[in-house]
């Protein structure tokens, strides 16, 4: 049916039933084969619309199940449709997309197919240098495989054609030699050898080596005659060039006229016929051909320019889209990084805050414990002062107690009296306490005041006064709702700033933190 049935709908009915059976049996390999056979049958019968309807689901299936040989064949079939419809921009973009896809998977055969597509597309639009580059890369990749690849023959054809169009004859000869070596791997079947002889003939004729050109033409003709029939006009053009090289102009012109009755838009035949007419002395007939040739060239050049412009425009849009995606991705990563950084900072801040709170709680409890011990010590000292006169002189108890208390009995009594005086009427809250005035009130002198305080408390008069102020501040922070500034003034500090500084120096915690912990402890 594939080869002999003309009605493609009949073939599709059969293939649909076959594929359903393969799907029922879960035979993935056979399903892939059937999809390939179906599209090949449709393609061979020029049912383009039907082909385009079926191709994309089939490509998805073959890609999913890694049926790469059929996948590459169908990608190439889709590419040929673009070329046949003169959609060169679409053809180039299709090949580039396949190239990017296969590069990601590092699949050599697929990369080679994409290079071959690009080589053919660029050759078609006259970008011979680009065609040469991709054709050569395709050959190099396929030559590096550990098995012969059928695409290698096509790769050599497009590579040699690109070199020949650029008149790089030395490189053309080198490519032909490499191709001839590769034929040992590819085999010597009729089609393979015909392509090699035919392309070799074209190359040698264009180089001006008519002897070798004719020899290869004869070899190609012998294969064509015995195996298949190629269009006569392609062959006759190069026989005409051989005859032109031998100055057999009339015979060459007859071949051209017979094979090409209409040459109005053929850029290859127009210059050949015009050149033959000039060489035969028929320049008047050649002139309009040259004029028309220039018009055709201008038209083609304009088309090629538009193709390249469209390709650049399409590439610009693609690059713009990719750049926008990349920019959005970078924005996302930047925002994500910012969020992560913020979370880290927040985590550190929370951890630090907890550590600070824990430390402050510890300091608060430590302050309260110190206050408790100070109260107990004060009570014990007062009790001793009361019982000391009742203890017999020179007793062990008295000796031990006298050794354990700081300062003399008189100094302790003086400090106690000074303390009561400062607390009475809150004299310690006075901003500018005059030490001289204080000594007069206590009926002592400055030296005795300093010595008594130093011996009993280890502090100077101002340090002693500040301790009283801070004790009062703690009480107010614990029990009142007064502001910190009000408490500072109430306790005798010049400014809230001074109060903050002295409170933190003494207790290693700020008044605000102290009040907060005090509130939690209630």
Q: What report would you give on this structure?
A:
- With 522 residues, the chain is an all-alpha fold.
- 80% of the residues lie in helices and 0% in strands.
- The model has no long low-confidence stretch (mean pLDDT 83).
The overall strand count is 0
Helical/strand content category: mainly alpha
Helix content: over 70%
Strand content: under 5%
**Major sheet size, sense and barrel closure:** none
What's the number of helices?
23
- Report the principal-axis shape: rod-shaped
- Tell me the series of helices and strands, N- to C-terminal: HHHHHHHHHHHHHHHHHHHHHHH
Average pLDDT over all residues: 83
Compute the separation of the termini in Å: 97 Å
Using only CA atoms, what is the Rg? 52 Å
Low-confidence stretches: none
Short description:
The protein contains 23 helices and no strands. By secondary structure, the protein is mostly helical. It is rod-shaped, with a radius of gyration of 52 Å.
List the helices and strands and how they pair.
Blueprint: H1 8-24, H2 28-44, H3 48-64, H4 68-84, H5 88-105, H6 108-124, H7 128-143, H8 151-165, H9 169-186, H10 190-207, H11 210-227, H12 232-245, H13 249-259, H14 269-279, H15 283-387, H16 396-404, H17 409-423, H18 435-441, H19 446-456, H20 461-479, H21 484-490, H22 496-507, H23 511-521
Helix pairs in contact: 1-2, 2-3, 2-4, 3-4, 4-5, 4-6, 5-6, 5-15, 6-7, 6-8, 7-8, 8-9, 8-10, 9-10, 10-11, 11-12, 12-13, 13-14, 14-15, 15-23, 17-19, 21-22
């Amino acid at each position: 049916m594939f080869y002999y049935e003309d009605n493609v709908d009949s073939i599709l009915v059969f293939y649909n039933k076959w594929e359903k059976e393969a799907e029922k049996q879960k035979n993935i390999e056979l399903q892939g084969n059937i999809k390939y056979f179906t599209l090949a049958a449709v393609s061979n019968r020029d049912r383009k619309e039907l082909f385009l309807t079926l191709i994309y689901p089939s490509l998805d299936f073959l890609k999913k199940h890694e049926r790469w040989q059929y996948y590459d064949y169908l990608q190439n079939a889709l590419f040929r449709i673009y070329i046949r419809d003169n959609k060169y921009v679409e053809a180039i973009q299709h090949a580039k997309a396949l190239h990017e896809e296969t590069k990601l998977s590092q699949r050599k055969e697929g990369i080679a197919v994409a290079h071959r597509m690009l080589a053919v597309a660029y050759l078609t639009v006259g970008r011979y240098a680009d065609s040469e580059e991709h054709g050569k890369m395709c050959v190099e990749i396929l030559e590096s495989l550990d098995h012969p690849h059928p695409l290698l023959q096509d790769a050599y054809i497009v590579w040699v054609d690109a070199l020949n169009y650029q008149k790089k004859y030395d490189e053309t000869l080198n490519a032909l030699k490499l191709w001839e070596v590769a034929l040992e791997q590819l085999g010597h079947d009729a089609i393979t050898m015909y392509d090699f002889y035919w392309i070799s003939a074209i190359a040698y004729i264009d180089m001006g080596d008519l002897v070798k050109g004719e020899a290869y033409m004869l070899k190609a003709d012998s294969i064509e005659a015995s195996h298949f029939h190629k269009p006569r006009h392609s062959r006759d053009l190069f026989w005409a060039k051989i005859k032109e090289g031998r100055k057999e102009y009339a015979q060459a012109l007859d071949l051209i006229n017979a094979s090409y009755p209409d040459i109005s838009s053929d850029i290859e035949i127009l210059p050949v016929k015009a050149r033959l007419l000039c060489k035969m002395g028929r320049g008047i007939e050649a002139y309009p051909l040259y004029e028309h040739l220039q018009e055709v060239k201008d038209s083609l050049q304009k088309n090629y320019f538009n193709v390249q412009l469209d390709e650049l425009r399409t590439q610009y849009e693609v690059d713009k889209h990719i750049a926008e995606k990349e920019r959005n991705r970078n924005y996302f990563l930047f925002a994500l990084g910012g969020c992560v950084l913020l979370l880290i900072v927040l985590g550190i801040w929370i951890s630090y805050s907890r550590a600070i709170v824990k430390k402050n709680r510890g300091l608060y409890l430590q302050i309260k414990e110190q206050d408790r011990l100070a109260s107990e010590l004060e009570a014990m000292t007062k009790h001793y002062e009361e019982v000391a006169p009742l203890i017999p002189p020179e007793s062990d108890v008295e000796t031990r107690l006298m050794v354990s208390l700081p300062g003399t009995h008189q100094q302790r009594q003086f400090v106690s009296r000074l303390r009561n005086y400062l607390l009475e009427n809150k004299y310690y809250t006075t901003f500018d306490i005059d030490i001289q005035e204080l000594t007069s009130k206590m009926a002592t002198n400055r030296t005795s005041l300093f010595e008594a305080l130093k011996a009993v408390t280890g502090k100077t008069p101002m340090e002693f006064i500040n301790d009283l102020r801070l004790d009062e501040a703690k009480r107010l922070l614990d029990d009142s709702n007064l502001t910190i500034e009000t408490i500072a003034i109430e306790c005798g500090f010049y400014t809230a700033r001074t109060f903050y500084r002295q409170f933190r120096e003494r207790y290693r915690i700020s008044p605000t933190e102290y009040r907060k912990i005090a509130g939690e402890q209630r």
